[in-house]
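Researcher: Next entry in the queue.
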Amino acid sequence: MMILAAGDTSKEESSIAGREELLPASVRNESNVTANGDHDVEGPPKKVARLSTTHFRKPLTNQELNELKETESLYKSNLFKLQVSELIAEVSVKAKRQRTVEVYVNELQKCLLKLSSSKSHKLIDQEWLTKRGVNIPLEQEPWEVKGNFKFVPPTHVHSVGSFSAGLSCKPHVHADIAVEIPLECLQEKDNLNHRYHRKRVLYLSFIATKIVKLHSLVASVNFTYHQGEHMKPILVITPPGKLGKHCAVRLHTCIPQDFFKFSRFSPSKNNVRSTWYKNGIESEVTLVDHSEPATPHYNNSLLMDMTHSKNTCFLQQTLEGAESIQHATLLLKVWLRQRDLDQGRGAFTGFVMSMFAAYLLRKGKLSRVMSSYQVVRIVLHELGENCSSSKSRRQPSASVVRCRR
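Model: Structure for this entry, 405 residues:
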């Protein structure tokens, strides 16, 4: 019989405690004895729930087998597919947030249609707006320009852009709406000499003075330049409450269909007369002088306002039901944003990328049965093939080839 000294009792207790840690939790609970030899008063030990293994023994369903086959043929690996799915889920707007923003946009559209009219003023007479505290964000040089402006409530308010097509990408979520300027506000030659650009900014400025008073619907109203274009200021409306922390509404303008002829805005046509731009004098001559330089960027600026709703309808109808292509456009928008290609004037925006994917689908170069990974690869390949600068780099001249050899 081994006898322990008084100083060795701590060693025995520590060894017993060490052996108890090796025991299962259920056994330790059953032998839970206090230092006085009494059982713990906390009650009977809790039973440990065992995991059911029946779920792992079930055979795979047909849907799961099809997904595995698609992963092998449409993606590099199952891990890559999981990464793509997680990225799409992270940047896409949740259905609940989408419905909340749509309800807010509908309320805002109703308020815009109920605005009151104003008196008629000359385009160079803008004191009636500056007295209301509006700083018009447009460089108006030369100052002298012909035409009158009268605010009339918009005939239609269209939901345009990626958000209305369900292709908005986080973290910067914007819902775009376009107010259609009525025919009463426009004149036949408003395509000339910045007349339309001045009318659209006056139209938006008057709207800003009205909706800023709707405190229950609008938290703040600010001007910004659309894609860095100094001739195209737009309104940014921030909703009140928590919704304003996650999204904003951008207010654009659009022109009624068939008001201007599309042939007037060919890249080779001129819509800014040299006599007015250099000397500030507008002549009464209606004939076009073919010696005038072309104004392709100015023409494109008006074409954008003429085709807002048409482009959005084309995008919605083309990509409806094409879930893989919709997911691919989200991935392409992330690709653009990581490289800052969607920032600044003349940027390749996410909406342009979505339109390009819809164009390839109409041309038959994309298919609805493709995976999002395959769509991204084909879209980037087509961008490279259609870029003239990249073609010139891939096909150097014969002299350059000889030097390289």
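Model: The CA atoms of residues 274 and 292 lie 7 Å apart.
Researcher: Noted, moving on.
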